[in-house]
Amino acid sequence: MKRILIFGGNQFVGRSIGEALVEGGYKVYLFNRGSRPNPPGAIHLKGDRNNSQDLEELLKDRYFHGVIDVSAYEDHQVEKSLIALQGRYGKYIFISSASIYQDEEEAPFKEGDRVGKNPVWGEYALNKYRCEETLKKVSKKYNSSYTIFRPFYIYGPGNNLDRETYFINRILDSKPIFIPKRRTRVHFGYIGDLTGNIITALEKSTFDNETFNIAGRETITFEEFIGVVENILGKKSNVIWVDEEVHGIKARDWFPFRAVDLHGDISKLLQAGGKIEYSIERGVEETYRYLVELSLLGKYELSPLETGILKRTYIK
Domain NAD-dependent epimerase/dehydratase, which positions (predicted)? Predict the structure, then answer.
């Protein structure tokens, strides 16, 4: 039985990966502080990854066929983990972010495009970029393999962020959906496709020492995404277009996304043997079914900012 170590593993992406690996017959170890319930069937290594002593004590003399790092947001976290492991693993998979692409005008982004700090994502993007560079550098030192994934907007069952639910709840409750006036194009990725390709990367050498964009096959505008949700719910939305400049606000003040183009080229992933199985329609339908089954949908109240927008001039 192959042993897989996950840094994180108890919230949305990490939890979904852990559950898929357990179901796939892997022996799964989760390194986290235990602040949330861990997936059934996984072995908990309770510790703080920022603490070198915790890392050394809990990982000493252990070998893992694969390591999946979901929780690193700063380069020192990656470096400490790699030093503690001392190369005792088959492959290190790091979950980075598509936010690290620097120039929005280069979309659809390719893996070789410029990356690092940018005006939209700031320090978060810079830190993810530094994590990637640290992984590459230290992997050479230990002569070990790595794979880097750059997800775009990930959604699906278990999502702890109010993204797809932002639209679903509002349509169900007949509440207005406020969308930035600028019609941007984005890339969504279903959680099942992310977990599936991570498992593929563990097993395929074509993923060794490479970086991959990952998302669905379709790019989409928020207006088009709303149309998908409308069709699944069988109910029309009430969309209000908001001019950020007129109101003196930014999309992130009320909207769960940035008003920028964020989509990429996933051909490299497919050429390496990766697969994208979920269309946006299928993914949203699966998500909606999950939300209904677990009674996770509820009434939505407009925020004070949204109420203020309603009272002022807007473009519809």
Answer: 4-215
Q: Pairing between strand 145-151 and 91-95?
A: parallel
Q: Among 152, 140, 32, which Cα is nearest to 79's?
A: 140
Distance CA 307, CA 82 (A): 49
- pTM to 2 decimal places: 0.96
Q: How many CB atoms are located within 10 Å of the residue 220 CB?
A: 18
**What strand order describes the sheet that includes 153-155?**
153-155, 185-190, 219-221
Give the pairing of strands 219-221 and 185-190: antiparallel
Tally of CB atoms within 10 A around 181:
15
201-202-204-210 Cα dihedral, nearest 10 degrees: 50
List of E strands, the chain = 3-7, 27-32, 43-46, 66-69, 91-95, 145-151, 153-155, 176-180, 185-190, 210-214, 219-221, 238-242
**pLDDT greater than 90 at residue 33:** yes
Q: Is the pLDDT of residue 315 over 50?
A: no
The burial class, CB within 10 Å (0-12 / 13-18 / 19+), for 185 is middle
The CATH T-level fold of domain 3-151 is: Rossmann fold (3.40.50)
**Domain residues of the chain, as ranges?**
3-151, 164-186+219-260+279-310
Whole-angstrom Cα distance, residue 103 to residue 113? Answer: 9
Q: CA-CA distance, 58 to 46, in Å (whole number)?
A: 8
**pLDDT score, position 128:** 98
User: Residue 316 — very low, low, confident or very high, per pLDDT cuts 50/70/90?
Assistant: very low
Instruction: Residue 210: count other Cβ atoms within 10 Å of its Cβ.
Output: 16
